[in-house]
Structures are given as C-alpha cells and as structure tokens.
Amino acid sequence: MTDPFSGNVGDGGDRLVRTFLVVNVGATGRLRPRREDSGSSTEDATIARLPVGDGSVRDGTEHASSSGQVDFSWVADEPLEEESDFCDEAVIAYAMVETISREDPPNWYCCAPKEEDRICHHFPGKQFTMYEFAFREAGIRLPFNSFQMSVFKWLRLAPSQLHPNALAFMRAFELVCQFLGIGCTRALFFHVFHLQRSGSRGRHSWVSFKQPVRLFKTYEDSVRHFKNRWYVVMPITRAALHSLYYYQRTPNGEETLMSKIPLRWQRDHFDLSTAHYRVKYAMLGEEDRLAYKKLVDYVQSFSLGSGRIDRACPTWMRPGN
C-alpha cells in the first residue's frame, strides 16, 4: 500500500485547557490528484471488490440513482463557487486524518479535488469531502467515534455540511465530558447546542450550532478561511470501510453496502425545522440531567483573572494579586 503523502508524519494530539481546544501540528504533505474511479486502492483487492451504491444519500444510507444526475439547485451559491486550494499540487495540506504509528500502513487515503469539483459534489464510490479544519484545528480523527456518528446520523448531514466551528464544538464537548467524567451523549449535546442555518430563498449552505446558555467559546483563529481548504477522503482498508458502511440484504437475497451516516451533501435535513433536532430538558434522562448540572456548575466555577505581559510571557493573576 502506497503512502499518499510526500510529507512527514509526526505525533499529533490534543489537550483541554478549560473550554479551549488546542491541537498540535501533525502530518503535512502534497496531495495526489483525485482519480475518476471508485477511489479504492488497486493494491487492496479485498476493498476494490466491495460493492457500493453511487447515488444520493438519504437517512444515512446510499440508494442507487436511476438518472445519474444530481440536483444541486437547493445548495446556496457559496459552496458551489469555492474551488479547493488543493487543486494546486504545490499547496501543502495538513493530512493527519488518523492516529497511527510511523510503521503502520494507512487506513485512509486523501487526494486533491479537481478544479471543477466542489465541496458539495457527489464523488464516485466511497469518496467523501472533508475540510482540513476538521483534522488540523478541531482534532477529529478517523474513524469517526460513536458520538460523532450519532450526531451526523441524527442531523442527516454529511460531515462537510457542518460548519467547521460546529465540528470544533463537537470535539470540545467530547473533551469536556471526558474531563468531567460524564457521558458524552447525543441527547446532552443537543440540549446544550441548538441549530442555526445559513442560506436564503430555499437554498442552503452550512449548518452551525448556537447555545441558549453559553458554555463553550467559539473557535475563531482559523475558521474564517476554511472554505477553500478541503479535500477528498476514502477508506482503503476493510476496517476503515466497515467503520462507515454495513451490509444490508435486499429482498432478492443480495447484499448491498450501505453507509451508516450521510457521506454526501443532501437536502433531507432541511425538510424539518431546527426545533425538531433540539432536545428539551424534559426529554433528558436522569444521567443526562445530572451530567448537565455538573457541566454548568463546572463552567460557573470559573473566575476571571487579569493578565499582564512581561517580556512577551503572559502571566495570569488572580483577582487581588
């Protein structure tokens, strides 16, 4: 199996400092151009032989398209206009999409889109689009974990349909839950975060989150320049493939490979109001209610300090010092 990157692979990770997310620098390199076929590694015959639908994604599963044409009239102008920076082979990409050692072969392949490709386009086979921000700043790693999968499935959205700040909120929520020792559940997340949509006149772009009670701070450093920094990702091992797909038996006895979550941009999400995806306090179970109280108490325990700069080294002081 060939390493798809010419850059070096380094150690990556993340850490929590209060509610701020900090992600270390990892792998960088130049991406190879996208191929027109299914995107499977020809050196991995077991993956190349696996069947996959090539139609629209609905309710987390792929259905064959009879016409082969995809209607993007519901997509706002901006996603349809933004060409990826990585069409230029000289542009360096942050490509640490998984956590593996130097000796281990990769499970995922990243490639550069073509000039005519757009983030919302449907790519053949098992290819799907991701923003560089998701891996570099938000610290997400493939395969998606169960919490992330549950969010994408509940929203009926492909990962790249979420605004990168939404992905950062998801990752920060996971880290805070881990730090506090509380369950990281979809119900608790959608009680803390509500939806907001961008677009107008029946045309839609990215979906983001807002907070009725502000517990997490918005990630602002690099998110403003995310729209042109996206590439195409695909699984190239059986383990990676099965993290996204499952087999479903058809009425005639044949097995079809179906996606567990939406991997292509789809309109279904917008058929329901944002209130549909909200989880009210009365809908929370006992454990989630206790977890929410612990989360709120933790944030309210913060005390503001005053800062001073001494020879370019910040020193944080407690009030009264």
From TrEMBL:
Sequence ranges assigned to domain Transposase (putative) gypsy type in this UniProt record: 134-196
InterPro entries in the cross-refs: Transposase_28
One of the Pfam families matching this protein, by short name: Transposase_28
Region (Disordered): 31-69
Protein name: Transposase (putative) gypsy type domain-containing protein
Lineage: Eukaryota, Viridiplantae, Streptophyta, Embryophyta, Tracheophyta
